[in-house]
Amino acid sequence: MSSPILAAALAAGLAMVIAPAARAQAPGPAQGQAQGQAQAPGPTLAAVKGRDLLICGTSTGAAGFSLPDSRGEYRGIDNDLCRAVAGATLGDPTKIRWVPLTTTARLTALQSGQIDVLIRTVTWTQGRDTANGLNFTAVSFFDGQGFLLRASLGLKSASELVGASICVVAGSTNELNLSDWARTNNIRYNPVVFEQNDEARRSYLAGRCDAYSTDASQLAGLRASFPNPAEHVILPEIISKEPHAPVVRHGDDQWFDIIRWTFFALLTAEELGITQANVDSFLGSQNPEIRRLLGLSGDHGPLMGLDRRWAYWAIKAAGNYGEIFERNLGMGSPIKLPRGLNDLWSRGGLMYAPPIR
Length: 357
Prior knowledge:
Elements: H1 4-25, H2 43-51, E1 54-59, E2 67-68, E3 74-75, H3 77-90, E4 96-101, H4 106-111, E5 117-118, H5 126-131, E6 134-136, E7 141-143, E8 145-150, E9 165-169, H6 173-184, E10 190-194, H7 197-205, E11 211-215, H8 216-225, E12 232-234, E13 242-244, E14 247-249, H9 253-272, H10 288-293, H11 310-318, H12 321-328
Parallel strand pairs: 1-4, 1-5, 9-10, 9-11
Antiparallel strand pairs: 2-3, 6-14, 7-13, 8-11, 8-12
Helix pairs in contact: 3-9, 3-11, 9-11
């Protein structure tokens, strides 16, 4: 007669053998179905929905990124990303209150709750990420700092800027990068520091400084806006890495996810050939990846407290990432900036979205 201990051991062993097989045979989530419970709105999403308005921190003026047009409408890649978030959260890209912020005021405005999200040519750095109570969501633009100067100076390299006066914006990574670059290369220069980009631009044009140093993409935008762009050149040197990313406050993981995955949805749409104009034609698609993106299957929106068609509304609001880049910075814009590092990974760039599944 077998002992109780032996019987228990045999039963446990049999359970270990049967359990994996049962799990393998058990029906899982439907194709494209996300696992987990639909989420209630967190503090930031609840506030946005409660006021039926997204408060978006933007620039006081950076061509191609954020600049009011002749009708006072903000235009630029940063503004379109805000519109995509408004689409994803509220279903309406016009439900935005723009808060233009200087370089020195932008992080404080987010920390204090004056804005819901900061999408404003903010460079992701370790110090900002860890010491300010902020989270950077995803790199929305890869940039680097350069130099703009008059062609009449005849300079071909930044190493020739010895003794030059250089306009730069206070409180920006550009100010620190310029100092680091000069120290590393033993180059003496005279900084001319301003509170806002527009002040620096006007001073450069007025001849108060020999060169202007900021992110190369912004220099291209500035140059394109000048009365005679050909009279100004951008030197070939790039002296820093400037990854721009939308920023949110610590402590609201749901809102962090919404901002990050809205951007990833715009990248995914570009990969799949889905545009602002043709997105409706994909609503009958049987492609599982497209169905998950557009909310035709799965609960990816509800998992963030959003409608199932959150990504559809984001794309409808602003288009895919390629469209946003092209109309604001690319060859279809006055700036005519190549995609470069900001192209999709499948075309040699660095833009790569994790899968929605």
